[in-house]
């Protein structure tokens, strides 16, 4: 039965704007109560207490979400971000986005977005920025990105990178298509170098008890809420580069070992916009089926300048690769620059070549396939070298069964060549991705990668990446080969 609480009814203000509705519990106020705040009513406390009885972890989730905000804002400021669009901010607490960002970088500019009357009232009274930066507030719904962007443009410069924060808000958008549209429209409006940050409740990560609590919430509070699986949340950030440690519990995202954090059933993901093209698995999948895997004849090459025409479905990734002579010295050089490497991830790759092609022959214009397993996921990648082995058009999609895909790839005219096993740590430096690999049988390597735009010359970008490597001032030996070529050469030399 829905909860019955006798409270004052909703009223309209003299100017027609809605006043607080205290006839029903509201998310922002209940969340405030879970965090120990005072901006809530009896109806919020009653509902909040019952939800907590059904799902005792909810208070830990609320606190972990706020602690994640503090860590991610510090990360973003360290990454050079000075503009923040915080969608679904909720009621102000001690550590808000603007207070955190402007503590680390006083010139930071922050725009909050919410449509709760109590949140708006507090925002007007409390959310003031420092003299060097700016803080503003937009009265809008997450499903109205046009209004959000139009109003936020008075404070934010959308020609410069922006961090779009969507913490605990997409769970109030029940339709997947609406949620995806909001995310994409916001991220399409910000430039390369921007970030998307999402937290979202889930029934995974031990959150099964949340089902009953959410059902109770949807009968007694507003707005309605839903959980999403990790797979569904990944779809919301398709086309962006997910940063390490990937999609994890918000309580485990880049926490220090000393914190001894335990996982709460609230996912967090931070993704980086490194290309102005949205290259989604669905688009990549159509490209693979449509021709790239079968010969690459009808796939546009984004590594070279193209005349006006259809949108490209592939992405062009260029890289430079180095043998590392002194791993400890390289790690120290990166740390001295404030470059923080992710936790290590084990990657297990199987490389494939087209039947008839052999090592020693040119790879240019020839499609190659890779099956990669990491963190329990399997990715199928098709790479076609263009300017050289380290400048490739790539298409990638996730597959459900590695063994079945292994058989399918061979049926399509490819044969397995080399198995590559490595441990990888990564970091993002501006538009570049750094990969510090320890490859079985080869030793440590440094890869520096970048997705390039149509019209950019791959070899010119490689020269820029090489110049960055030289500034590290550590022993590095550049190699023009890929890992499969290097392993095959080493194996042949042993024979």
UniProtKB/TrEMBL annotation:
The protein's matches in InterPro entries, at most eight in alphabetical order, are given as:
Adenylyl_cyclase_CyaB, CYTH-like_dom_sf, CYTH_domain, SAM-dependent_MTases_sf, SAM_dep_MeTrfase_SAV2177_type
Domain CYTH residue range list: 315-489
Q: Which top-level group of life is the source organism from? A: Bacteria
Q: Which Gene3D superfamilies does this entry report, sorted A to Z?
A: Hypothetical Protein Pfu-838710-001, Vaccinia Virus protein VP39
Q: What is this protein called?
A: CYTH domain-containing protein
Q: Which organism is it from?
A: Micromonospora craniellae
């Amino acid at each position: 039965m829905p909860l019955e609480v006798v409270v004052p009814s909703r009223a309209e203000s003299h100017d027609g704007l809605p006043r607080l509705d205290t006839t029903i519990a509201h998310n922002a106020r209940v969340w405030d109560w879970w965090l120990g705040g005072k901006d809530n009513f009896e109806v919020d406390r009653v509902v909040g207490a019952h939800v907590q009885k059904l799902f005792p972890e909810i208070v830990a989730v609320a606190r972990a979400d706020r602690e994640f905000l503090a860590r991610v804002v510090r990360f973003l400021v360290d990454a050079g971000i000075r503009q923040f669009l915080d969608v679904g901010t909720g009621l102000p607490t001690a550590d808000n986005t603007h207070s955190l960002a402007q503590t680390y970088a006083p010139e930071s500019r922050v725009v909050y977005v919410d449509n709760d009357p109590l949140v708006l009232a507090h925002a007007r009274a409390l959310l003031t920025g420092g003299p060097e930066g700016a803080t503003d507030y937009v009265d809008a719904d997450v499903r109205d990105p046009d209004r959000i962007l139009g109003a936020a443009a008075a404070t934010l410069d959308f020609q410069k990178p922006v961090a779009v924060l969507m913490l605990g808000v997409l769970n109030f958008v029940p339709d997947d298509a609406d949620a995806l549209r909001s995310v994409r429209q916001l991220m399409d409006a910000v430039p390369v170098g921007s970030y998307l940050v999402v937290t979202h409740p889930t029934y995974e990560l031990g959150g099964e008890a949340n089902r009953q609590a959410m059902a109770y919430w949807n009968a007694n509070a507003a707005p309605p809420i839903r959980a999403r699986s990790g797979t569904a949340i990944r779809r919301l950030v398709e086309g962006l580069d997910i940063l390490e440690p990937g999609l994890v519990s918000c309580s485990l995202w880049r926490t220090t070992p000393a914190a001894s954090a335990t996982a709460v059933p609230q996912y967090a993901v931070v993704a980086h916009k490194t290309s102005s093209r949205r290259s989604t698995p669905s688009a990549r999948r159509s490209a693979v089926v449509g021709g790239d895997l079968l010969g690459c004849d009808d796939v546009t090459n984004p590594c070279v300048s193209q005349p006006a025409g259809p949108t490209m479905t592939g992405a062009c990734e260029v890289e430079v690769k180095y043998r590392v002579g002194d791993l400890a010295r390289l790690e120290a050089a990166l740390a001295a620059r404030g470059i923080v490497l992710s936790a290590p991830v084990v990657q297990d790759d199987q490389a494939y070549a087209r039947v008839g092609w052999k090592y020693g022959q040119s790879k240019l214009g020839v499609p190659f396939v890779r099956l990669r397993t990491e963190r329990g996921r399997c990715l199928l990648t098709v790479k076609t070298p263009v300017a050289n082995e380290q400048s490739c058009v790539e298409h990638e999609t996730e597959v459900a069964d590695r063994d079945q895909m292994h058989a399918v790839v061979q049926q399509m005219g490819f044969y397995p060549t080399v198995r590559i096993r490595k441990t990888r740590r990564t970091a993002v430096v501006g538009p570049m991705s750094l990969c510090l690999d320890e490859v079985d049988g080869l030793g440590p390597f440094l890869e520096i990668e970048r997705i390039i735009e149509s019209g950019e010359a791959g070899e010119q970008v490689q020269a820029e990446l090489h110049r960055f490597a030289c500034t590290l001032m550590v022993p590095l030996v550049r190699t023009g080969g890929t890992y499969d070529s290097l392993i095959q050469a080493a194996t042949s030399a042993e024979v």
